[in-house]
């Protein structure tokens, strides 16, 4: 078995969508950069790099965006350099896996895409309303998974504020402080050389915070998104006709659909937020684990 085949199999067996997001980001980064190198060495041109920039990065201009609407999705899987992707993937690995243990695949998928979309939209709005940024509109393009990663990071910190990481030179630091420092850094960096990128980061962070707050109120924003994505996917699937017959006996013996346990799960999440994961009973941990497997 080749290395790539083995890696692909291990990712599938893990069942973690966080690994899948990392694999897609790293795979695309390597693919495009290898192509750029060979194009430059063999043909001494930059046509592919120009296409990559012009048709896959998210433009700040509405006039350009309307001709390339797919860029609101493609931009969040591409990166501008080695350190850019390195730090994004490290944060995604640390916080994505942690949050996925509690919320499951579907909510991580929703946070990644909706956080990225929110950050992208805030970026576009900012470049079209603020005079300082509007002067740079012609050259404004956004790229990177940072808004998506910030959505997951802040969601994780909102759900598990007292979860502790051991940081080099600093020792144990609670997750809420890590998130707070990063958000403050992004806000202050708006005055720097990449204001639009920092605004996109803050858009993702805001979405992650509101997502968890709404989830605790019983409003799961991942459900409509997953239904839309699932509906789009079903359009391209050919299904054989299905015939189902019911007898009176089947109707009498059929059991009613189980009642939603969202309130119970929300109570467990609140308990984690207040007292930490270790405060849960074995039964509560099992319920949360089963719920994360479904979502």
From TrEMBL:
<feature type="transmembrane region" description="Helical">
    <location>
        <begin position="21"/>
        <end position="38"/>
    </location>
</feature>
<dbReference type="GO" id="GO:0006508">
    <property type="term" value="P:proteolysis"/>
</dbReference>
<keyword id="KW-1133">Transmembrane helix</keyword>
<protein>
    <submittedName>
        <fullName>Membrane associated rhomboid family serine protease</fullName>
    </submittedName>
</protein>
<keyword id="KW-0645">Protease</keyword>
<dbReference type="InterPro" id="IPR035952">
    <property type="entry name" value="Rhomboid-like_sf"/>
</dbReference>
<feature type="domain" description="DUF6576">
    <location>
        <begin position="260"/>
        <end position="293"/>
    </location>
</feature>
<dbReference type="InterPro" id="IPR050925">
    <property type="entry name" value="Rhomboid_protease_S54"/>
</dbReference>
<feature type="domain" description="Peptidase S54 rhomboid">
    <location>
        <begin position="69"/>
        <end position="212"/>
    </location>
</feature>
<feature type="transmembrane region" description="Helical">
    <location>
        <begin position="111"/>
        <end position="133"/>
    </location>
</feature>
<dbReference type="InterPro" id="IPR022764">
    <property type="entry name" value="Peptidase_S54_rhomboid_dom"/>
</dbReference>
<dbReference type="Pfam" id="PF20216">
    <property type="entry name" value="DUF6576"/>
</dbReference>
<feature type="transmembrane region" description="Helical">
    <location>
        <begin position="175"/>
        <end position="192"/>
    </location>
</feature>
<feature type="transmembrane region" description="Helical">
    <location>
        <begin position="139"/>
        <end position="163"/>
    </location>
</feature>
<dbReference type="Pfam" id="PF01694">
    <property type="entry name" value="Rhomboid"/>
</dbReference>
<keyword id="KW-0812">Transmembrane</keyword>
<dbReference type="GO" id="GO:0004252">
    <property type="term" value="F:serine-type endopeptidase activity"/>
</dbReference>
<dbReference type="InterPro" id="IPR046483">
    <property type="entry name" value="DUF6576"/>
</dbReference>
<comment type="similarity">
    <text>Belongs to the peptidase S54 family.</text>
</comment>
<feature type="transmembrane region" description="Helical">
    <location>
        <begin position="72"/>
        <end position="99"/>
    </location>
</feature>
<dbReference type="GO" id="GO:0016020">
    <property type="term" value="C:membrane"/>
</dbReference>
<keyword id="KW-0378">Hydrolase</keyword>
<keyword id="KW-0472">Membrane</keyword>
